[in-house]
Amino acid sequence: MKQPMNAWMLRAVPLAAALLLAGCSVPSLTHAPDAAEAAVPQRWSQPVDGADADKAAAVQAQWWQAFGDAQLSRWVELALQRNNDVLTAMARVDEARANLDMAGSGAMPQVSLSAPGSVNRSLSARTGQMVHVRSAQPVLQASWELDLWNRLGSLSQAAKQRLQASQADSDAVRLTVAATTAQAYIGLRSLQAQLAVAQFTVKSREEAVRLLGDQVRVGYISQLQLSQALAELESVRQSVQQLSLAQERQRIALMQLVGGVGDEQAQALMQRTLAGVSSVMPQQLGTQVLDRIELPGMPAAGLPSTLLERRPDIARARLQLAASDSNLAAQRAAFLPQVSLSANFGSLLINALDYNPARVWSLGGSILAPLFTGGRLQGQFDAASAQRDQAAYAYRGVVIKAFGDVETALVSIQQLQSQWQHARQRETVLTSTLGFAKDRYEAGYASYLEELDAQRNLYAAQQDVLRLRQSQLENAVALYQALGGGWQSAEVASQNPNSRL
36-107+147-335+370-492: which CATH topology? Predict the structure, then answer.
């Protein structure tokens, strides 16, 4: 009994030493840098009127319907169905799901079947004759790595978190596409309104130039007044060309968001959109085109801390950070010994034995303890640690941007509203001024240059009103996007399933 015990000890001592050396070289896990912490403000710097700041905002998932424009809703819904970025993001989710399946398979036993066969022709040493030996050996092989240090579990957890991150990224892409489409539609409507005002102004000035030409021929006015009127006419004609080009570019950009200029559904929707505008009288188009898009009331912003649960891009960055932590844990476990079990079961069939199957089997195990790898494992661990730090800084950057987006949109609400009101008042005053100038010119108290100056100022004021209304509508879209557009994290959505985008 002495000899077998000594032999066992001789084999166990090197194994224990290998385990001890491997355990001593395992690095410790570290936390993300303190500089990666994102500071969350207590309150928004801009007062939030008409909302309970202590509660999360109940932004509807289909927030674009708050603008009360059926055409806008159709454009957004078509973009969410056919936009290329949305379809690509969905494909990335499928890829992440497949990666999760692959990562999970590593912790399961691996079973395979092999059936090698051979034919040998050799000279028999006993009989001196050529002998053909045919054999086949079907074998069922099984292997299983015991996940003692949770290396495979950490890799599977990282893959699961990346899948969740890709799902949040898909939601973020959908939100971005919806907001971009809504703003593109608003931009197209604004250009249509500005172009209508410019075209109506051209017609009125062409008529004025014709009348001035008659007056110059009879010597009633000087050539100077006619020249000034012609210059102003050409200036507005140039504006018409510029606005026409901008409108065509905006039309193409909007169609690209929903499938491209060759997409039949996009073309049909654009035809209906333009047909709805052509039925409005030119002198009314400037105001009615944008007035058909309602300026929604400001959605409740809630506390800044709630924003961390309502933006899919923040959820994506947070999950990517968690995945990098799991990957770092897996790299740490690579320093520890890996234990594997294996088994083979099969039959051996040889023609010399009349193919009478002989049972063959084997059982075994192995322990692989890394002792010296030339710095490879340490380098992989350091790289994973740096990737974790990058993910932490990326999360901080997304959070900072999110707070900035909301603050910018909140600050812009009152400022743009005040600017628009002043522009409307200026438009009203200049409309009256133009009427006074016309009366003075027709009564012979002033030259046409006075009326021309009033026309120029009124045209500029009308365009300012339209552009400011466009800015207000686009800022409302930006606020919905900044607040997450009705999206909520999976934890919050599980408590309120009807609130998920």
Answer: Outer membrane efflux proteins (OEP) (1.20.1600)
